[in-house]
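1st attempt posting a full record on here, be nice pls
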Amino acid sequence: MHLLITGADSLLARALIAALPAAVTVRAVDAAFSAPVPGAETLTGHLADTDFLTAVLADVTHIVHLAPLYTRLGDDNASLEEATRGSYQLANAAAAAGVQRILLGSTLDFFAPLWDRYLADESWRPRPQPTLDQLCTYLAEVTLREVARVTALPTLCLRLGAVVDDGYAASHAYDRRWLHVEDAVAALLRGLEVEMAGWRVYHIAAAGERTRVPVAQAGEEAFGYQPRHDFAARWASEVATPDFQRPAPIPARPIRKVVVFGAGGPLGAALAEELAPHYTVRLTDVKPVEELMNIPPQSPGAPLPVPPQPPHEWQVVDVRDPAQVYAACAGMDAIVNVSVLRNDPVDAFRVNTNGAFNVMAAALAHGIQRVVHTGPFMLGQRGGTGYDWDTFLVDDIPPRPGVWWVYLPSKLLGQEICRIFAEHYGLTVPTLTFAQFVNPEVLPNRISTLAVSWMDAANAIHCALTTDELSSPYEYMHIGADTPLGVFPNQKAKRLLNWQPRDDFREVYTRKNSD
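the predicted structure (as C-alpha cells):
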C-alpha cells in the first residue's frame, strides 16, 4: 500500500503514520509542517494546485483525506477553496489514476443542533452550521459523494468526534465530543481494509453513554468499530454547557434598494430592466458596463446590459473579493446573485462557490434578510447516476450535478452554502434554477425540457423579491415555461412566487397543419 495523507500536520495524521505497518509507504501532505513527520515522505503545497496534485498522487494506492478537517490557510476564501476545489480535483484525479480507496475525515459537530435531544446515527441528515470549519468539512463530503456516485471510486467518510490525546484530556475540562486519538486511528486503519464499494458514512465516537453521538452503525459487524476510551476519569471535570440554540432570525425589512451581482450577463441585463421601475438598483459585475455592452450576445437575441440611469448605478465588483462584496451590499435591503462562471476549472469554484459564501457573509454582516440565488438545473446527468431516464422531475429531488462539467458541482456547493446560512440565521433565500433561456422573437429549432424566456426569468426573480409565501428559509425551484413536455413541472414556482410565465414557445413544438 502506498498511502497519501492530506492534512498531515495534524495530531491524527501523525498518530496514524506511527501506527501503520512498516510495509506501508506514506506520503504526507499539508500546507505547512510544524515539525518533521517520522516515517513519511513530506511534501508542502496545496491540493488546489494541479501541478502539485499530480506530483503527490504518483504511485498512490490509497488516500486518507484529512485536509478539509484540519488545513486552514491565510483567509476564509483560501481555506474554502482548498477544501472544495482541492477535494474535487483530488477525488477526480484519484479516480482517473486508479486509486483503490479514499477515506475522508469529517466531523460529528454537524449534529450539534440534535444531540441534546436525539440519538442521531449515520442515517440522519447532517445539520452543518455556517462556520468555516463546518463548511469546509461538509462541502468536502458533498464533493466526494458526487465523485463517488459517478466514478464508483470507493469512498468512506468517517465523521469523527474532537480528536484528543491523553495530555490534552488531562489538562482540559471533559467535553462529550472527545474522541481518543487511538480510537480514531483504529477507525482509520479499519477503513483502509474493510470491504466496501461506492460511498459510505460511519460515525466514529468515544465509548460509553456520555459521548455526544453514540456509536451506532460503525459498531455493527460490517465495520466493527469498538472504541476503548470513554474518558471516565475526566467526567467529574465536565463544565455544563447550554443547549444548542440558533441565533435570533434576521428580521425582514421593506425592500427598496436591491444589489445585483453578475448584472453584466444577459439574465442580469433582463433583470435590470425588470427591477428598475420598482426599486433603486445597484448593478455590479467584474467589468464596467461600457465594456460588457459591446460583447456579442451570449445567444441569438440574448439581452445586453446598458448603462443605468440615476438613481440606479453600476459598480465594478468582483464577487470573488469578500471586501468588494461587503461594500456593494452596504445600504441595500435585498441581494440578487446571478453571477456565474461555467468553464474555467479554477474560477468556477471561486465565483460559484466562494462567491456564494461572500454574498451570504455580506448579507449577514449587513442584516439583509432576503437573498435571491440563481443557478443551473442539476438533473440532466446521463445514465443511472442522474435522472436522464426519468420524467416529471419535481423541484425538491436531490441534485445530480455529475463531475465532468465544473460549472455544476461548483454551483451545487454554492447552493449548499446558501441553504446552510438561510436555515441557521433565518434568512429568506429563494433559489431559482434554469436550463435554457430563449428570446421568443428568435426561437431555436428545439427547446429544452426546462426552457424560459429571458423576461419571464427576470420576472420570476422579481417575484422572489416580493413573495411572503416561502414555507422554509431556503426554497429551491425550477423556472420554466408552460409547455406540454411534462418533464419539469413549474407549479412550485407559481405557488411560492405568485409567478406566471407569459411565453410558451408553442411555435417550436406544435404540429404544423399539413394542408
